[in-house]
Recover the amino acids of this structure.
């Protein structure tokens, strides 16, 4: 992979890291602007997703989640041992503080894994009212020194997303001196302004980035001193695939993909490629060689005409700006091939239908078993239910989060049960199974 440029940064980095990488459990964190993007992220190998609700999110124009769908999303990721972090990363107005606790409570009780915040007042409020909820400092908080990180820690924050303008050496130093987890962006759109400090959209159009409503004025053409208009402030997209081994050496805890405004094919494509190379590194390949076709796929999917490793390698420079275009190019004609099927939890099923005893259904997965009894079968007057008939109903998992492929069927060949009764028993069983699997994540105040 490409070496970090800039001798000073390299020397500081090597001194901080040493010969061996820091001990770290690596997390690949993907955006989930809506439920389809969440499914794409989990199917493509994300360890966690970050999502916004319909209030207090720094991406107000993403699909986002209402209360019901976010609770469903929390349950879904937990079925596969993954995590969901809620973005509550806007500055909160005084009159809104009274609503924060009631807003968070249903998600907290469902087992929400963490909250990404910008407002220090929100941090204090959540720590007081939800003591077991993990707090992450958003990049909007502009944490760029160990002093800022220690202040965050004093508020009960366990993880920081450092300002994107820090070098890798500075991130290593910040992590070592603060003892906090660090979550860093590795791919996606970049802002021209300093993290969390842009007022341009607010000044020009009354749409504040710190309230999640950025209009993206940095993507507009500007003229400087009478010269021809160009996109003077439009940043290239970040892509760190060529320095991913260095980032992992440095002990970064969570590797974050930007893109809550982007579609499922973007989430699936980018997540799967970074998953591939992170897994290679974890398996022992510490000198990753990036295939040209993988780099081309990343650059071809929703990039603004060019990619850059961001500030990890250098402080700034004109080569980080794309003057010619601000629109996304994407492999739209191939997008369907990049969206994997929704991942479902495989379930083993056994169904017994015999005269003289109630219908029995047993469902098993991950060491959890639910057993149900239904109506007692009637003796068939014309045509009895065959094993294939019963199987056809048992495997109809529909829009649930489960999949039943080859249920075991035990029947006497003489019985009849209404299809509606079998369907009701299956739906009830899957609902019970979901509740049992997620019960360990639930909390109460």
């Amino acid at each position: 992979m490409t070496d970090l440029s800039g001798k000073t940064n390299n020397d500081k980095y090597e001194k901080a890291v040493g010969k061996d990488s820091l001990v770290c459990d690596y997390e690949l964190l993907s955006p989930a602007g809506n439920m389809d993007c969440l499914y794409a992220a989990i199917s493509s190998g994300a360890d966690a997703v970050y999502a916004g609700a319909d209030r207090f999110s720094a991406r107000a124009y993403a699909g986002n989640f209402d209360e019901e769908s976010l609770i469903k999303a929390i349950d879904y990721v937990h079925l596969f041992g993954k995590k969901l972090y809620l973005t509550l990363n806007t500055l909160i107005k005084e009159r809104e503080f009274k609503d924060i606790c009631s807003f968070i409570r249903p998600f907290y009780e469902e087992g929400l894994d963490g909250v990404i915040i910008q407002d220090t007042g929100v941090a204090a409020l959540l720590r007081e009212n939800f003591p077991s909820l993990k707090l992450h400092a958003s990049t909007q908080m502009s944490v760029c020194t160990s002093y800022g990180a220690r202040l965050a820690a004093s508020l009960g924050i366990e993880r920081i997303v450092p300002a994107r303008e820090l070098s890798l050496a500075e991130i290593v130093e910040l992590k070592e001196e603060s003892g906090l987890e660090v979550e860093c962006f590795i791919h996606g759109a970049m802002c021209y302004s300093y993290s969390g400090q842009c007022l341009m959209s607010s000044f020009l159009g009354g749409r504040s980035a710190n309230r999640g409503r950025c209009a993206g004025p940095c993507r507009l053409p500007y003229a400087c001193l009478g010269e021809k208009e160009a996109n003077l402030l439009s940043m290239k997209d970040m892509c760190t695939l060529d320095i991913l081994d260095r980032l992992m050496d440095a002990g970064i805890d969570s590797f974050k993909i930007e893109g809550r405004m982007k579609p499922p094919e973007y989430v699936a494509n980018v997540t799967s490629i970074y998953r591939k190379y992170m897994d290679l590194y974890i398996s022992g390949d510490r000198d990753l060689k990036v295939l040209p076709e993988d780099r081309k796929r990343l650059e071809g999917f929703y990039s603004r005409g060019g990619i850059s490793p961001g500030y990890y390698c250098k402080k700034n420079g004109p080569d980080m700006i794309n003057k010619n275009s601000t629109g996304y190019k994407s492999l739209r004609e191939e997008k369907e091939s990049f969206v994997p099927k929704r991942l479902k939890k495989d379930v083993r099923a056994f169904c017994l239908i015999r005269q003289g005893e109630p219908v029995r259904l047993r469902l098993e997965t991950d060491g959890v078993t639910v057993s149900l009894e239904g109506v007692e079968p009637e003796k068939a007057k014309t045509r009895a239910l065959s094993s294939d008939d019963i199987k056809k109903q048992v495997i109809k998992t529909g829009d649930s989060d489960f999949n039943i492929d080859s249920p075991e069927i035990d029947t006497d060949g003489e019985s009849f049960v209404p299809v509606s009764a079998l369907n009701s028993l299956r739906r009830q069983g899957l609902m019970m199974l979901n509740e049992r699997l997620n019960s360990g994540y639930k909390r109460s105040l």
Notes: The first helix runs from residue 7 to 17.
